[in-house]
Specification:
Elements: H1 3-18, E1 21-27, E2 34-45, E3 48-49, E4 52-53, E5 60-66, H2 67-70, E6 78-81, E7 84-94, E8 98-106
Antiparallel strand pairs: 1-2, 1-6, 2-5, 3-4, 5-8, 6-7, 7-8
Pfam families: Phage_attach
InterPro entries: Phage_tail_attach_FII
């Protein structure tokens, strides 16, 4: 089995076991909605800097998904997951494989 095969198996395991939704819909401000997006939603995240929790009192919600879908997203775009709408505020991390956005719930 090649390294690429192993990496694909790992991706599948991450999606299957950690994703909160496999059928979220990404809504860019311009363009057509993208269905069947997998996302991981982490609530009450305490940010870290250089591996240590920050001294700033902050808790936020983060949404992680595949870079090939959400990597080119823009601030203000939305993702609908399990009946909740999340507005993308700021891209926090993107390793070229998975991207994490700081999000706020649209009420």
């Amino acid at each position: 089995m090649s390294f690429a095969d192993l990496a694909n198996r790992l991706d599948e395991a991450v999606r299957d076991h950690l994703a909160d939704d496999h059928a979220a819909v990404y809504h860019p401000k311009t363009g057509d909605p993208v269905p069947d997006v997998w996302v991981i939603i982490d609530r009450d995240v305490i940010p870290v800097q250089q591996g240590q929790p920050t001294t700033t009192v902050e808790r936020r919600t983060e949404l992680t998904g595949a870079s090939d879908v959400l990597g080119d997203a823009r601030s203000g775009d939305t993702v609908v997951s399990n009946g909740e709408t999340w507005r993308l505020q700021r891209r926090d991390r993107d390793d070229g494989h998975m991207v994490t956005w700081i999000v706020v719930e649209v009420l």
